[in-house]
Design goal:
InterPro entries: GTP-bd, GTP-bd_ribosome_bgen_YqeH, Mito_lipid_metab_GTPase, NOA1/YqeH-like_C, P-loop_NTPase
CATH class of the largest domain: Alpha Beta
Distance between the termini: 51 Å
Number of domains: 3
CATH architecture of the largest domain: 3-Layer(aba) Sandwich
Largest sheet: 6 strands, mixed
Bound molecules: guanosine-5'-diphosphate
Protein name: GTP-binding protein YqeHrequired for biogenesis of 30S ribosome subunit
Organism: Oenococcus kitaharae DSM 17330
GO molecular function: GTP binding
CATH topology of the largest domain: Rossmann fold
Number of helices: 9
Helix content: 10-25%
Length: 373
Amino acid sequence: LDEGITCIGCGSLFQTTDPDQAGYIKASKLHDYLAGLTSPDDPIDLLCERCFKLRHYNQIQPVALESSHFQKILSAIADKKALVLYLIDLFDVSGSMINGISRFIGNNPIVIVGNKADVLPKSVKKHKLADWLQREAGKQGIQAVRTIVLSADKGDAGETLLNEIDDYLDRYPEIYVVGVTNVGKSTLINQIIKALSGKGSVITTSRFPGTTLDRIVIPLTEKTAIIDTPGIIHASQMTHVVSPKDYKYLLPNKEIKARTFQLQSGQTIFFGSLGWMDFLNRQNISITAYFENNLMLHRGKTEKSSDFFRLQAGKTLLPITESAMDWISQEIKVLPGQDVVISGLGWVTFRNSTTIRLHLPKGVAFSVRQAEI
Ligand code: GDP
């Protein structure tokens, strides 16, 4: 295998020895390919077992990606003349942020792409969202030349984005697409390729995190290329404590409905069995919750909440965390116009100042930010 043939789906080097590792392919299949028994004009057929299963049966076999490996790929960008497209999932902005991204990419220009705009309520204005995202990224020390909001999987590579790429391609012949797993990198790249060259879909996309394992270079012209990088997996996201079959409660694929609640003091809202929020306010308040529509939001009395949780976890309260675990409680003071975000799950917007107590599985991150919507 010294030719270094890679899987068209994930970019891993093929190997025929370890089915549990990236790039595994049956020796006979590879042999047929190398012997020209299958058409080399049709490289889409040469997928590793993992990508093959993903494409044909929607199955996932998780493969761990070393974070140092990821950092090595990213830090190589600093030495190149590259335009960096930094993808953010608009439904999970904090979970999409990559620590130290500015350091990795050196002086190269960065365009922030807020993807999956279609899952937010239709009433939300895209330019407002872009302004908000640019400000939030600025707080993380990221100075983007531009911030664009779009929906890659709705066939929308974004006129503005394509123009931006056009403007830079002369001076920056490589386009690096970076982002955490599942933000839609492969989907966006497919759209860009389609728009720039008229080619069809060549990169594996899936609903499961962790599909792209290594750098994939896709030439656009003789001098220019677009590069897909592996997505780092954020360990503090809710997806890590939920079984993949329950991702349908976490990852929206269509417009989420804003759910508004009027709350009295002493009330609690459960987010399925994945966490709950006690409201310690004295007056009535109103909140709006943005979660996957399937996720059960249940309001009850705080004083009865532990009994209710014990009886209803996995029944009324769906989904449930994968295994019994420790819970962490945190008291948070919230101001009007702020969101309390549960990483990888969703957020609650507050119109009044109040204090809450948030209960989450240990290891799942939360944050408070200026309201996204
Ligand atoms: P990657 O891991 O960053 O390469 O992400 P993929 O391109 O594989 O996409 C991850 C998941 O997000 C897939 O299920 C895509 O269909 C979905 N996805 C990508 N773009 C969009 C979008 O604009 N809107 C919605 N609703 N889903 C998207």
